[in-house]
Amino acid sequence: MVDLSAEVSKWPVVDGWSVSPGKDWCAKGFRVKVGTECSLGDGCRLGYWCSLGDKCSLGAGCILGDWCSLGDKCSLGAGCRLGDDCSLGYKCSLGDDCSLGDDCSLGDKCRLGDWCTFARDMGVQSGYRHVLAIQGDRVVFIGGCHTFSFDEAREYWASKPDRVETLAAVDFAEELAALIPETAAVLSGKVEMVE
Fold first, then answer.
1. Angle at the Cα of 79 from the Cα atoms of 77 and 84, rounded to 5 degrees
2. Strand, coil or helix: what is 46?
3. How far is CA 13 from the centre of its chain?
4. Reduced to 3 states, what is the DSSP secondary structure of residue 2?
5. In what order do the strands lie in the sheet with 50-52?
6. Cβ pair 26, 58 in contact under 8 A
């Protein structure tokens, strides 16, 4: 485990960016910004122009693409991979082995469980952040700390009168999932899942 904040604080700074002298987890000349109290697990790698807010934690084997930005208090489980230009808002949490492609953007307090390979932030309804995701071999709707299929989500929130917006988000997410190539392939069963 590397005390990332302490390590990067020793590096030269150019135009507000710390310049790596060359580490196994950050190539020589790469520029990064790292807040206070950040930690980095073994075998991680930071891309060029990465920015981490305060109190971020990256588990072993995490790889961040170029231009990734993590808000304060983000937590990535072991083996997570973020493509180029990914942005995670305040206090986002990704479980182990999540792999999100280029240009993924998740808002504040998004939570993804283990093995998510696609995520689309659906915004905040009924006071909770919602996400459409592929987890393992299924498309899921994530609301707060709950992860459901669309039918499971409807059943869970149907009896809660203060979750009308959430139910509308579930319906919209299901329609959207049929249109997005990644999720549509999983829904139709026309994709082979890698074990």
1. 100
2. strand
3. 28
4. strand
5. 13-14, 17-19, 31-34, 50-52, 69-70, 87-88, 105-106
6. no
* Residue with the two structure tokens 């390979």: 117
**3-class SS of residue 162:** helix
Q: In angstroms, how far apart are the furthest CA atoms of the chain? A: 57
Give the SS3 label for residue 142.
strand
Model pTM score: 0.86
DSSP letter, residue 36: T
Q: Which of helix, strand or coil describes residue 69?
A: strand
pLDDT band at residue 151 using 50, 70 and 90 as cut-offs: very high
- Cα dihedral 166, 168, 174, 180 in deg (nearest 10): -90
**pLDDT at residue 190 greater than cutoff 80:** no
CA 103 – CA 25 distance, rounded (Å): 22
Dihedral (CA of 11, 12, 15, 20) sign:
negative
